[in-house]
Amino acid sequence: xxxxxxxxxxxxxxxxxxxxxxxxxxxxxxxxxxxxxxxxxxxxxxxxxxxxxxxxxxxxxxxxxxxxxxxxxxxxxxxxxxxxxxxxxxxxxxxxxxxxxxxxxxxxxxxxxxxxxxxxxxxxxxxxxxxxxxxxxxxxxxxxxxxxxxxxxxxxxxxxxxxxxxxxxxxxxxxxxxxxxxxxxxxxxxxxxxx
Length: 195
Prior knowledge:
This protein is mainly α. The chain has one domain (9-174, 184-193). The chain contains six helices and five strands, in the order αββαααβααββ. The chain has a three-stranded antiparallel beta sheet, covered by helices on one side. It has a two-stranded antiparallel ribbon with strand order 4-5. Helix 1 (9-33) runs antiparallel to helix 2, helix 1 (9-33) packs parallel to helix 3 (89-112) and helix 2 runs antiparallel to helix 3.
């Protein structure tokens, strides 16, 4: 059993910076894309929301999830590229990085607000529209980032093996037999390299 090499600091730092950058930018993008539904303040100071606005509440989580799948996949591929010689750990690195970016995105969106719905509702005058808090209601949406990273690394692994499996047999057939050739030395066996 071969021992996996330790993770080099420069690549770890590069990946950490990518996670932070993607998380912050994703939070800003999420905040910009989402249209917050609003409550209408009635004459008796009660708050009313239309059916269309109720549907927009779910759109907040849907946009977050869509951004998460795409950027989680990007982080998964980045982890795969940076640690190409490492074993299964690169998949875990990608998923953990995606989870960290997801939490950072969530935090940035909430910080950008608005928040404190109760205080804003009390201060509203009749006819005012009060936006809901900018928040993630389905907390399980955070996992879509990890799913994106895992799906990307899985697909990348399968495609790489498929392409590698097609390429190696051709190379072995193309090699000319002779002294010290790959065929004579037994380096190729059933289309795969012996290690």
